[in-house]
Specification:
The chain is an all-alpha fold and 63 residues long. It has helices at residues 8-26, 28-31, 39-62. It is 75% helix and 0% strand.
């Protein structure tokens, strides 16, 4: 990942990754692949941020 640290899309992606990783590290349900009620929105936010970042990276490669 070579995005600038000032890139807001990349920043949101990394913040969401950090939150998801932190939650999974302390949640046995999420560690076993079963998303808990508290973790569902955290993991969904990470997935959405990742999708946005990767879509933008893909669009940049096409231009």
């Amino acid at each position: 990942m070579t995005a600038s640290r000032t890139d807001p899309v990349y920043g949101r992606y990394m913040q969401a990754f950090s939150a998801s990783t932190k939650h999974t590290g302390s949640c046995t349900a999420c560690q076993s692949g079963q998303v808990c009620e508290a973790g569902a929105p955290i993991h969904a936010a990470f997935a959405a941020a990742q999708d946005a970042y990767l879509a933008r990276q893909s669009a940049k490669r096409r231009t």
